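[step 3/7] inverse_fold.run input=structure_tokens len=474
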């Protein structure tokens, strides 16, 4: 257990330095903006190229990174490529700037996705939300320090500090445990690895859709809100991410019972985004106005980011390839920002009034409000079902039998229904139950419907919850 905790700290530290570099430079960072401004270059082409490349790296990494040893190599090599690709920005603009940003964006995306292996292997499942929060908190604190220096002192020093982050991150990543290709650590169990991935596709698709749409407003923030306050360079350089960090600390330290209420905090976050764009429309462009708008917008971003990072972290047990799961999940965030950026560039070019920008942003929030209820339902069923199945699998055969006998039904289960119930508790789908019992899938559905009716439940998750709760009371 001690080694797992030590590796958790090591993996969080390594990734925090990598992510601090990406936030301060590649991903619309202040170091990149300061460097571009210092030479009077046009920023849109560079920014969009870096984001597209970063999306491609996140999305495609899982296609060729399939083992822990390759994931470790991807992190180290990715950071080395980022380091080399940043060097041209120490000199006057050239074609190497665009090449470097594309290379750093793609390599950085691969390195981020590869960390999914170490989030799964080096962090106990119930602590992954803490690891995700710690990474986001520490990387943003480092980013703030670099931003303040780059904006207020020298963009060259900011560049050098962001490159130092890569060196430190690479050195720490080299100490991560690569293990063997089939090895399982204390952070995972064979039971979780055997879960069927079929049940995860629908909730993950809904999550990806939700993340993509809601982060369109983040892209609008970069292209519309931030430029409106660019005259407050000193204030923006240090305060921009402070509300984000505060929100992360708050969410990280919620009691486990409160963490389950995911949808409640998402509704609060959506309300904050709506308030941010409304106040942006109504208020002026002074320091006090910036405090209000930024606090609302970045506080909401902190709530949302930890939500989907932690959800993706929890679902890694469903995948044999955490790099693919983690990369695709986070690529939805980048895709949303990219769409928002493009929309923001168009809005800026046609000089759309702030009132109409607010209407667009509020429309985005309204669409996500429609998606949120089915998303919450899908995730609740997925994660609760997974937790209950793990608890059931850990019981002895005697305890498992006791679970089924525990609830006294007015209309007892038939022998066939008992067999079906046992297989449901083993995590089998209707198709797998049909194969195991040599009966038709329609017959299985008939038995499942009868079981639900007799237990007065509406889903597998509710059935398992009812059975295990009764078991814990005895």
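[step 3/7] decode complete -> sequence:
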């Amino acid at each position: 257990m001690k080694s797992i905790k030590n590796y958790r700290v090591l993996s969080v530290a390594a990734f925090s330095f990598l992510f601090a570099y990406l936030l301060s430079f590649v991903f619309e960072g202040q170091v990149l903006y300061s460097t571009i401004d210092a030479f009077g270059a046009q920023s849109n082409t560079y920014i969009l190229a870096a984001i597209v490349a970063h999306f491609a790296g996140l999305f495609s990494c899982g296609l060729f990174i399939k083992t822990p040893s390759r994931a470790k190599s991807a992190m180290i090599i990715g950071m080395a490529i980022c380091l080399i690709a940043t060097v041209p920005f120490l000199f006057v603009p050239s074609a190497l700037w665009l090449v470097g940003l594309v290379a750093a964006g793609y390599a950085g995306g691969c390195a981020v996705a590869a960390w999914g292996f170490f989030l799964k292997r080096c962090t106990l499942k119930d602590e992954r939300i803490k690891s995700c929060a710690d990474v986001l908190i520490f990387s943003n604190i480092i980013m703030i320090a670099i931003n303040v220096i780059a904006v207020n002192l020298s963009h060259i020093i900011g560049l050098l500090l962001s490159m130092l982050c890569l060196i430190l991150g690479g050195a720490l990543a080299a100490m991560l445990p690569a293990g063997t290709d089939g090895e399982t650590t204390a952070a995972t169990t064979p039971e979780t690895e055997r879960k069927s991935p079929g049940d995860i596709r629908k909730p993950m698709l809904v999550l990806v859709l939700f993340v993509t749409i809601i982060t369109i407003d983040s892209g609008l923030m970069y292209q519309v809100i931030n430029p409106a306050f660019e005259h407050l360079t000193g204030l923006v350089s240090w305060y921009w991410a402070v509300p984000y960090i505060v929100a992360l600390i708050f969410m990280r330290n919620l009691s486990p019972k409160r963490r389950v209420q995911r949808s409640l905090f998402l509704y609060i976050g959506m309300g904050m985004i709506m308030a941010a764009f409304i106040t942006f429309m109504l208020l002026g462009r002074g320091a006090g106005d910036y405090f209000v708008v930024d606090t609302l917008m970045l506080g909401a971003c902190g709530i949302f980011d930890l939500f989907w990072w932690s959800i993706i972290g929890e679902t890694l047990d469903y995948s044999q390839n955490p790099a693919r799961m983690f990369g695709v999940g986070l690529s939805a965030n980048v895709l949303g920002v990219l769409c928002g950026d493009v929309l923001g560039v168009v809005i800026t070019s046609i000089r759309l009034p702030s009132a109409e920008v607010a209407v667009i942003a509020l429309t985005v929030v309204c669409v996500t409000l429609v998606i949120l209820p089915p998303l919450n339902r899908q995730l609740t069923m997925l994660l609760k079902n997974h937790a209950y199945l793990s608890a059931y699998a850990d019981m002895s055969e005697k305890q498992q039998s006791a679970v089924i006998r525990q609830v006294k039904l007015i209309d007892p289960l038939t022998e066939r229904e008992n067999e079906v119930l046992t297989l449901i508790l083993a995590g089998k789908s209707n198709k797998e139950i049909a194969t195991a019992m040599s009966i038709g899938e329609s017959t299985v559905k008939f038995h499942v419907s009868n079981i639900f009716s007799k237990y007065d439940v509406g889903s597998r998750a509710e059935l398992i919850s009812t059975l295990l709760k009764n078991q814990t009371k005895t």
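[step 4/7] annotate
The chain has 22 helices and no strands.
The radius of gyration is 24 Å.
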